[in-house]
Write a structure and sequence with these properties.
single chain, alpha/beta, Rossmann fold, 6-stranded mixed beta sheet, 18 helices, globular
Length: about 500
């Protein structure tokens, strides 16, 4: 697919959507204060800012998920009240969340027409009509797949397009995309950008939320920056640079993670420390095959590949959360059975999953999340809230969780602070091997630095770290040795050499 056309300037016109003086508080905390925002017809408008800047709150207000707020919202000059997600959808506002809401066990067609399936004269689902209609909707978006197949059998970019198609055919005039490229490979990102450019030509207006600033600058017409719940700037993307946006967000320049965008890194020689975890001929049908690797004490092993390369699933197998068809795992020269999570955790092999819902209970308090994995060993047999909080408070200070309120629901934290709670949970028990799958997904530069600082501290204490990511910058910035996977097999390994992003990606 050819690259999308460059972002075009938006002529002055009556906005399709206008937000004026939007404010929102959660208890005593200010999430948004007097924020103005507008969206022109046929515009892709980027929304950026650090974790906790207020982006998610503003978009949830537009999506009807937060009905109680200050300020006004107008669509085509008419004031509207978005009191529920249904009310927002009825007004033509659809949101594609970072954590996709599709049901993997259902077919593509069932996901597309869920709740509005065509019926026969006998009030049964008309499967033939539903499949035909779903296929037609996707062909409009240049996607030709078997809509009878389960949704979870397709790559993430297809699942995102399915959600976009569902929004479009619900009558959406405004499409909100939350971190749409955070788990896509470069070719998949190109495909998505081509689709968005075509939708822009058709007059659809989109809000594009992302921490990948280069993506925002490439595909968006204008960019709005929020900081600490306030509006900082709105400018055409052609007048902005990535470094300028970072400095506006954080008040400082590039640090270690971001520096890897710009230059090569020199990896140290292979570690001579004792091997902590060893995989031999590890295989899982359709995911990875014949994997041999080791990771030593105090070493960070990077697993890099495009989405679908198998490295993310391999990380789950190494952490004991995914069973394998063949091969063996050894921890400290003793067998470790893949698929036996409780055994792995008891022996100090822990996973920080890319999908935070797998390692965090968002509806529960921070203190309960932190003690969950080690209640008896960390708190004791006599369990009370006060004892749990007493154990958790120093951990929250150690990981610099903000706000460090143990009674706050974990789901109310920003993505970076949610990840800090996950790390605090594992700090309560032994950590021999820390397995990280996309640990900084959806985070701003500052949050990435803080989370990876905690990882570095664990590594310095002797923990073996496995960092699996589709972000070459993250792996280059933090790994001591890098293993690249391509279609489920190891395609390259790098240690004791100078390596840049281009060379790394060539092997993926």
């Amino acid at each position: 697919m050819t690259p999308p056309p460059p972002a075009r300037p938006i002529a002055s016109a009556a906005p399709l959507l206008r937000c004026a003086g939007i404010g929102k508080r959660f208890g005593g905390a200010i999430a948004l204060q007097g924020v103005d925002f507008d969206l022109q017809p046929g515009e892709i408008h980027g929304l950026v800012g650090s974790n906790g800047a207020g982006k998610s709150t503003l978009m949830k207000i537009l999506a009807g998920a937060i009905p109680d707020h200050e300020g006004t919202i107008e669509l085509e000059g008419t004031r509207v009240a978005l009191r529920s997600p249904k009310a927002a959808r009825d007004q033509g506002i659809a949101m594609v969340y970072q954590e996709l809401s599709g049901i993997g066990a259902l077919s593509v067609a069932e996901n597309l027409l869920l709740g509005r399936q065509p019926l026969t004269a006998w009030k049964a689902i008309d499967w033939k009509t539903m499949n035909r209609q779903a296929a037609e909707w996707l062909r409009e978006l240049d996607v030709d797949i078997d809509v009878r197949e389960r949704l979870d059998r397709f790559p993430l970019v297809i699942r995102q397009i399915v959600e976009i198609a569902r929004g479009l055919h619900s009558g959406a005039r405004v499409l909100i995309l939350d971190e749409p490229t955070s788990s896509l490979s470069p070719p998949e990102t190109r495909r998505l950008f081509g689709l968005l450019a075509n939708l822009r030509k058709r007059g659809l207006s989109m809000i594009f939320i992302s921490h990948f600033l280069e993506d925002v600058l490439e595909i968006c017409d204008r960019v709005t920056l929020l900081k600490d719940g306030r509006h900082v700037l709105t400018q055409p993307s052609s007048e902005l640079t990535k470094q300028g946006l970072i400095e506006a967000m954080l008040g400082r320049g590039l640090e270690s993670t971001e520096a890897a965008y710009e230059s090569a890194v020199t990896l140290p020689p292979r570690s001579a420390a004792p091997v902590v975890l060893r995989a031999e001929k590890l295989s899982r049908a359709g995911l990875f095959d014949g994997i041999d690797l080791t990771v030593a004490a105090g070493e960070c092993l990077g697993l890099y590949g495009f989405v679908g390369a198998g490295h993310q699933e391999l990380a789950h197998a190494l952490a004991g959360t995914l069973a394998c068809d063949a091969g063996r795992l050894e921890l400290d020269n003793g067998p470790l059975r893949p698929g036996k999570v409780s055994q792995a955790v008891a022996r100090g092999v822990v996973l920080v999953a890319g999908d935070r819902s797998k390692t965090l209970v968002r509806g529960s308090e921070i203190y309960k999340n932190t003690t969950l994995a080690h209640l008896r060993s960390g708190v004791g047999a006599w369990l009370t809230r006060n004892r749990e909080v007493a154990v958790v408070n120093p951990l929250l200070r150690q990981v610099q969780c903000r706000p460090a309120n143990p009674d706050l629901k974990a789901g109310l934290l920003s993505g970076g602070n949610q990840q800090k709670v996950v790390l605090a949970k594992w700090l309560l028990g032994p950590v021999r091997v820390l397995v990280l799958e996309e640990p900084t997904r959806g985070m701003d530069v500052g949050a990435k630095e803080e989370v990876m600082r905690l990882v570095s501290e664990l590594k310095q204490r002797g923990a073996a770290v496995i960092l699996a990511s589709t972000e070459p910058e993250l792996v280059l910035a933090h790994a001591d040795r890098i293993v690249v996977l391509h279609r489920g097999r190891i395609s390259a390994e790098f240690a004791g050499t100078t390596l840049d992003k281009t060379t790394l990606m060539k092997h993926a």
